[in-house]
Amino acid sequence: MKASDLFIKALENEGVKYIFGLPGEENLDVLESIRKSNKIKFVLTRHEQGAGFMAATYGRLTGKAGVCMSTLGPGATNMVTPAVYGQLGAMPLVIITGQKPIKTSKQGKFQIVDVVEMMEPLTKFTKQVTHGGHIPSIVREAFRLAQEERPGTVHIELPEDIAQEDIESPHIFDVVDFKIPHAIPKAISHAADMIKVANMPLLLIGAGANRKRASKALTQFVDTLGIPFFNTQMGKGIIDERHPLYLGTAALSDYDFLHEAISKADLIINVGHDTIEKPPFFMNHGDHSKVIHVNFFPAEIDEVYFPQLNVIGDIAESISKLSDVLKPHANQWGLEFFLDVKNNVATHLSKYEKDDRFPILPQRLVKITRDMLPEDGIVTLDNGIYKIWFARNYPAYAQNSLILDNALATMGAGLASAMMVKELNPDKKVISVNGDGGFMMNSQELETAMRMQLDLVVIILNDNAYGMIKWKQKDEGFKDYGLDYKNPDFVKYAESFGAKGYRPDSIENFKTILQKALDSKGIHIIDLVVDYSLNHKILNVLIKEYSETRKN
Fold first, then answer.
1. Are residues 432 and 459 in contact, defined by beta-carbon separation less than 8 angstroms?
2. Rounded Cα–Cα distance for residues 534 and 524 (Å)
3. Which of 46, 132, 349, 432 is the most buried (most CB within 10 A)?
């Protein structure tokens, strides 16, 4: 059997359904082997980043490693950002890159980069295939590591001459399932004792708890015990945020209205969060509060995070055991203060929800989006200042209904991520929200989306600037400088790809256009002018002043 055929058979054995990529001449044997596969769909993208972001999002949503492919040299270097996107975001991802022949190359060092060494600090595993017979074991090990907690990125380099080898008596390794160990009874008992003696415990839910069994266990935990909860940005929707004990989302690390509850809590039960995601709160030496770390792996000690207890093992099992042990103590903890904070948070978040000024305020956009999407609708975000508003103001009703990245937090991933979300959820309404800066970084994937015949609504928040950095620039007292640009005509740009383009001129016009786009087939691009003038006042000034007032 040809080695490239064996490689694809090994991928089929892992259950791979898609390979996203931009091949080069070094991948042609593999591409031919994919063509002959009746189990794998190849999706050609317009940039390697698009392929990597789509594959990583596939891994994030399914728990099975997404697969992407590039050529050597510049193709491989373009995969660096997706590699880190998957690694920091705990998204199982397998990157395949080509390479010149390693036995008899006649091209000197043309396009040669040591890709394996380059990927070493960025991935869980990186390996060059030096013999076709090693392919099955390398693929099996790569997928095992990519999908094992904490999930992440792996890389396989397949040189052109190795892909062409003839392999005698090929074999494929069985995909052997494994179970994550349970936390030891002593840790469960210790955690239960800490919760029992707490007066005002809080539950924090992070990205690592975004597993179906964990979502169910956490919902039961809150329902059974009556302990209020908040979440990180990437923990949104793990428990339905319409729950009466949901206090809010920690979109900022400090000084938000929610942090009044965090500062009052004497115990935080931190489930699934680690410091790779931007911290939802800071620990300080001498604090009265304690932290229990519940996760698949121990806490990494940091200046702002040093929990007093690790409960390590399957998250769902740990939470279920704690629910059982603590059930006799249900509802013994005081809620009055926390519910007062919840009402205060809701009051502040709703302040501009009905403000019909145009250009649109981000708070108004969030409200309209939530009202117009069905309960099972999905919003995906690129990275920008609007992500904070969606994290704070958008109530997520279910897991993976608000898709954002707060680990690498790269710009340019939003559109590709939305495309994968829609491909996996063809019957659900999907809205992709992007800043104008992030959208233009990989806007060429509109052609890929058209070719995939997706039905997708893309909102571009147009302020002709890098708005997030302008917000930070103002907060730090610098002059407004170096962050403004001019955008293309996004309506004409959309139409040039065969998509529909719109430019609303009022709130009512935007609502009409959005409803039309949601109800129609095809790709719809909405060029929406946004008003970020209140960002500094609210996020830098007012909430800090309010926090200081409440402390006093």
1. yes
2. 28
3. 432
β-pairing, 378-381 vs 309-312, is unpaired
Q: How far is CA 257 from CA 248, 347, 471, 551, in A?
A: 9, 10, 19, 12
11-22 pLDDT, tens digit per residue, is 999 999 999 999
User: Residues near 404 by Cβ (< 8 Å), separated by ≥ 6?
Assistant: 233, 234, 236, 380, 381, 383, 387, 390, 391
Residue 255 has pLDDT above 90, yes or no: no
The strand pairing partners of 99, in sequence order, are 159
Q: Give the model's pLDDT for residue 547.
A: 64
Q: Give the pLDDT score at 111.
A: 74
Handedness of CA 307, 311, 313, 315 (dihedral sign): negative
**Which residues make beta-bridge pairs with 96?**
69, 156
- Token readout for 477 is 């007292």
Count of alpha carbons within 13 angstroms of residue 467, beta-carbon side: 27
What distances in angstroms separate CA 247 from CA 162, 237, 242, 396, 432, one per listed residue? Answer: 56, 13, 10, 13, 26
| Class of the CATH-defined domain 185-345 | alpha beta
CATH architecture of 352-539: 3-Layer(aba) Sandwich (3.40)
Query: DSSP states of 480-529 as a string?
Result: S-S-B-----HHHHHHHTT-EEE---SHHHHHHHHHHHHTSSSEEEEEEE
> How do the domains of the chain map onto residue ranges?
3-163, 185-345, 352-539
Tell me, what amino acid is at 544? K
User: In terms of C-beta density within 10 A (0-12 exposed, 13-18 middle, 19 or more buried), how is residue 541 classed?
Assistant: exposed
DSSP 167-200: -SS----------PPPPPHHHHHHHHHHHHH-SS
pLDDT (tens digit, 9 = 90+) per residue, 451-501? 999 999 999 999 999 999 998 898 899 999 999 999 999 999 999 999 999
Contact 436, 412 (CB under 8 A): no
How far apart are alpha carbons 225 and 269 in whole angstroms? 13
Tokens of 404: 């954002």
Burial-class residue 374 by CB neighbours within 10 Å (0-12, 13-18, 19+).
exposed
Q: Which tokens belong to 237? A: 């929707």
Average pLDDT, rounded, for the chain: 94
- Whole-prediction pTM: 0.94
Query: Taking each helix axis from N to C terminus, what angle separates 3-13 and 135-147, rounded to the nearest 10 degrees?
Result: 30
Return the CATH number of the domain spanning residue range 3-163: 3.40.50.970
CA distance 464 to 459: 15
Query: What is the rounded CA–CA span in Å between residue 194 and residue 291?
Result: 9
Match 């997520």 to its residue by tokens.
396
Answer for the pair 366, 510: CB distance below 8 angstroms, yes or no. no
pLDDT average, residue stretch 220-235: 96
Q: What percent of the residues of the chain are helix, what percent strand, and what percent coil, each to the nearest 5?
A: 45, 15, 40
- Omega prior to 488 cis, within 30 of 0: no
User: What φ, ψ does residue 173 adopt, rounded to 5°?
Assistant: -80, 140
Read off the pLDDT band of 149 (50, 70, 90): very high
Helix axes 80-88, 48-62, angle to 10 degrees: 20
- The pLDDT tens digits for 169-197 are 889 999 988 888 999 999 999 999 999 99
